Amino acid sequence: MRPLPWPPSAPIRTERLVLREPEARDRAAFIELLASPEVNTYLGGARPRDEIEREMPGAPSRSPGVLAVDLDGETIGQVLLRKEAGRVGRVGERAELGYLFLPQAWGRGYAAEACAAALDWFAGVLPGEPVVLATQTANLPSMRLAAKLGFTEVERFEAFGADQWLGLWSPPPARD
């Protein structure tokens, strides 16, 4: 497994968004993402805000694979594209895509735009490497997004008391 080069050499820009390493200014949005009952409906539930604030006393972690999603200077979400050596189980040692967006950003195509840009970047730095995405089958918006991004079902399984879906994305073949 080749390591994921991190961070990207420059912010990833789309028509409307900028994906970049987290900064101190992202703290409030990241706390809201983790504390929001709406955001965490299919992720095991929201965590207590005071607990998150204690764990994130300053700037959000700049851990590999975490990108803040910025719209006109405001953080509206995060994309996670992690490739962890030694990770096993259903994901195996593949990169995994995840995303969290604030409810006020839902329904505008930002998640699709940000995730597609992250996958394009990934395909450029690790050509030929597949990516997986896991979501609850009850999370219909996430299932639609996975299909829109080109993920195909690998398996369904039960975990965390719910039916889960695992999809695989393979980058397009390199053009000559």
Structural description of this entry:
With about 180 residues, the chain is α+β, with helices and mostly antiparallel strands. The chain is about 25% helix and about 30% strand. It has an eight-stranded mixed beta sheet with strand order 1-2-3-4-5-6-8-7, with helices on both faces. β7 and β8 (about 160-170) form a beta hairpin. The relative contact order is 0.17.
The strand line-up of the biggest sheet is 1-2-3-4-5-6-8-7
The number of distinct β-strands equals: 8
Largest sheet geometry = 8 strands, mixed
Strand residues, percent: 25-35%
Shape: globular
Number of helices: 4
User: What is the ordering of alpha helices and beta strands?
Assistant: EEHHEEEHEHEE
Helix share bin: 10-25%
Low-pLDDT segments, ≥5 res: none
- Average pLDDT, rounded to a whole number, is 90
Taking all Cα atoms into account, the compactness measure Rg is: 16 Å
- What is the straight-line distance between the termini? 25 Å
Structural class: alpha+beta
